[in-house]
Amino acid sequence: MSQLTDRLERELREVAAGAEPSPSAWASIVARLGEEAGPDAAIVLVPAPDSSRRPVWLAVAAALVVIIGSIAVLTRAGDDHSTSTADLPKLSTTFVSPRNGFSVKYFDRGAGTVTPAQQLLGFSPQVDDGFDVVETGLAAVFQGASTAGAPRWQSFTDRPSSASIDDAVDELLSDDSVLPGGCGVPRSQQAEITIDGQPGRIAECANHIEATVVDLGRLYVFTLTHDRSDARAIFDAFLATIELTPETAVDFPAMTTTFVSPTYGYSFEYHDRGGLAPATTRWDPGNQPLGGRNSDGRFDAVETGLSAYFASASTEVPDGVSIDAWVDEYVGTAGCGVPRRQQAEITIDGQLGRTADCPGQLDTVGVTEATVVAGGRLYLFTLLSDRSDARAWFDAWIATVELTPETADAP
Prior knowledge:
23% of the residues lie in helices and 27% in strands. By secondary structure, it is α+β, with helices and mostly antiparallel strands.
């Protein structure tokens, strides 16, 4: 760098030879030095043989120092392999989470920029399945997830007064299936932060930043895994674009395991938590009472462990009967007393059926059910649940059903 500075000095001396400084030049240079030069710049007074030209030489010397100092700073910046937020493109594309109840803006790099969450937080061996993931391509990965359930309570606001939100969050995030590699700082000791107008907490540790916020009883977790010196500024840029919409979140697990009924001629998907129980006794509604659908082996059943119990079966339709009248007489015990022909329509694997929602039926547990006829068989699908999202979960389950009457073990 010495040749460059020597050259700059020679050229500045030549310029200064005929320069006439303004009366305020020295004060302006001193102020500029204080603002921009930083600790690596020093004011050097260059002696001039002619005292009448002293202000000119002082101005030249000060300008030289500023230039040299700037070169030194730029040289050091070139040796620093970290990048600054200047390389972060504008976050202009909005991603709306299909599961987690929030939106965030990001820079769209094309395919692979965003990977939506595939499962409830903590419900998959792959932790990332519960997070919406934004890959910036700039040594920083932003993630977001949410959950309505605290470890021991239905929500983070439905808890005894002796238990704080901080304690509930700490307990949840200590689980490696939820947030492995977290900072481990108790939430009550973390710095405060605001996310979409809601008070939250933030912690920073090596190559990781995490923030939590609770809105309408729902916990949100946002993280940035990085290898950057300006990671906090990038994280803050993402957080500034977030909108929390807890009312849009999905709180039932994705159904990714397929069950093929060995008896009744259909298949469906479910979330495997060990609660599957295939039928052991045939369902024959014309000759046996409906009874409790979760109390015997007539139905293929899935106990979710999440206040939701699915049951299903099928049977041959007797010749010459009216489907609606026959269902009302032999099947419709749980149909809320609404005749089948008056029930709402539903499509199951391309076949038109009927459906009813019955809150508080069967020992106060709500019932959602659907019936459909295909290949001469009547199919019955039922959900017993007291969840507020029971209908949405039922519809998601029905969307996975495939009817294969030809594979049923007749009758």
